[in-house]
Amino acid sequence: METMLSVESLGKSFKDKQVISNISFEVQKGEIMAILGPNGAGKSTTIRNIMGIMYPDEGSIVFQNSNGKDIPRHIIGYLPEERGLYKNVKVMDILLYLAELKDYPLDKAKERALAYLKKFDLEGKEKVSVEELSKGMGQKVQFIASIIHEPELLILDEPFSGLDPVSQELFKDEIRNLADNGTAILLSSHQMNLVEEMADRLFMIHRGQKVIYGTMEDVKTQYANFKCTIHGKNDLYDLERIPEVQRVEQNDNTSILYLSKDVQPTIWLRNLPEDIVIQELAIDRVSLHEIFIDIATDKNLFQEAGEVNA
Ligand SMILES: Nc1ncnc2c1ncn2[C@@H]1O[C@H](COP(=O)(O)OP(=O)(O)OP(=O)(O)O)[C@@H](O)[C@H]1O
Fold first, then answer.
1. Most buried among 18, 24, 117, 280, using CB within 10 Å?
2. Could you tell me the distance, in angstroms and rounded to a whole number, from the CA of residue 26 to the centre of ligand 1?
3. Residue nearest to atom 27 of ligand 1 (CA)
């Protein structure tokens, strides 16, 4: 594995308020690394420090292929959380202008721009001015602008917000495709279902501190306990008394039983009391969405916060 970006012990305060502290992670070539956390956790602050929009009080940021001082902007693509392109400029002109700023050859940029506009259903929009585009179309153009110069490291801050489901799929496929072709991707998103599908590794910040760092696989085995969903009319008290049931959520005739860590579902099912009414039953792992809420609300029911070994 080749490390493209290494964030080491980053700390940042605004006035006397420490916003992030001791943040360390790496982004490897060819992987999608997700950076997660509740609103205000410190994700954008971390990204802005990486991009040199602000400077850390502590720690360092090391890019591969850089001289150790400057941020190698020509090899980075960045889709910021704040959207916005120059409004009264034509789509192709803005894409070529941004490619030029990154020292990327214009003929290649034009070729790539046309191919991407076609891929994102914007064929024929080259001469349309940015202000005439819908919000989603504008976001597609901004995404193309962030990858036009074939960056080796791509930083995406909430790329899916405001996109319809079809466009979300397009973005998702393209991001995966870029990673498969070697781009290192740092992805910040609140859409846990998409992160769960896409990310190879994840880093979660809560109140400016690391709470999870590891591969999606490890996080899912170490944090995501099993849950059993039962359709059928049952008494809450009876369900709560079943061994290895941590807690039960009930809604009409559906009950979700959250099981203790390390429960073997096959053995647990064998020992279910016979008088439990079961019309349907499903066993699943707890989703990333549920893990996120568990940590963000400080319940920590699934596992004590800590490092998952990557
Ligand atoms: N320029 C600033 N001056 C003062 N405080 C700031 C500044 N930028 C961010 N903060 C504070 O830093 C904390 C982290 O903000 P940040 O934008 O990094 O969070 P985030 O994880 O990206 O949140 P969101 O999911 O809402 O985008 C917040 O408490 C925010 O108010």
1. 117
2. 21
3. 39
